[in-house]
Every structure is written in C-alpha cells, then in structure tokens.
User: What shape does this take?
Amino acid sequence: MDRTGQAPGRRERKKAATRQALSDAARRLFLERGFDQVTVAEIADAADTAVSTLFVHFPGGKEALVLGDGDERERLLTSAVLDRADGVPVLRALEEFFATRGPFAMGADPEYRALAALVVSTPALRAYARTLWMSCEAALVRVIAEQTGRGTDDMSLRLLVRYVLEIPDIAGVEAEPRVALDAAFTHLRRGWPDL
Assistant: This one.
C-alpha cells in the first residue's frame, strides 16, 4: 500500500523492483570486493539496468546504494521521539533507537553487521552516513521542541541534537561501539538531565 492506502500501480512496482535490484547487486558486490573496488557500471550491469537508471533511482551514487537518501532515516529518528512510551525520556528513546542501528545493533543478522562494518571502515561511506545523520538536525530539533515545550531556537536544544547526531560517527568506530553508545548517552544525560 502507498501513503494513500492504495495498492501501488504497475509503474511504481517496476520502479521499486529496479531500485531493489540495484541495491541488492550493490550490497553483494561491495561485500564481496569492497566499496572502492566496485564501479557504478558494474552495479548497473549486475542489476541488468543502465548506469543512467542507477542515478535516477540513487542520485547520491554508490554511497546511497548502501545508506539510502536519508528520508527514511529522518522519519525513523523522529518517530523514536514521537512514539516513545509514556514516561520514557527523550534521550532514552534516542539511545534505544541508535542501539538498533549500524554498528550498535547487537542482534543483527550477519549481512547487516557486515554492511555496518563496511560503512565504518570506508571513508566515503562513513562521511556520507554522517551527512545523512546531520541532515536530520532541523527535524529532530523541531520534534524535541514540540515534545518538551522548548523553542526551536533554544541553543541548548540545538547543541544537544548536534551531539546526538554525531554519536554514530564517533561511537561507531570504537572497539566496542555499544559500550561507547552507552557512554555517550550517559554524558548527555548529565548535561540535559530533564530530557
């Protein structure tokens, strides 16, 4: 179903299938040979499509094939705050959200863990991931402001959000990412005990 509750039409199904084929081919090739050893032409060929089609579906290029375009990331991140259970502090909800993502996801399947390791170990992917997280800043500030009665111009809130969004890049490369995640949020709770 699409956002209107309608089943997607043939054209939308074909677009989704092409997008999935490109993404699957890219992941397989990246995991087999490494990100820098795979070209967009090879990915398009493996998905039986044209390079121009790849860029129509993934204008962000190779990085977007692994990490997406950020829209879903922003939606999930803001939902972690909006949909948290009664009595759950904002920072706890965000920590629980990050605990399910990338290098912090302890119970993830082997392919997901391999992709997370690829992102952390590949400078271009790591930089792109950081860019995607930082693109969520305004939306996360807005949602937390709404939930806490603060203004979106509250510098303390904007600082907090910036720190939160830097956590995947900083803690994700530590020897024990989950321990680093816990430490990061422990520090944030000391600075913002009311959140």
User: Anything to note?
Assistant: The chain has two domains: 10-67, 71-191. The chain has a mean pLDDT of 90.
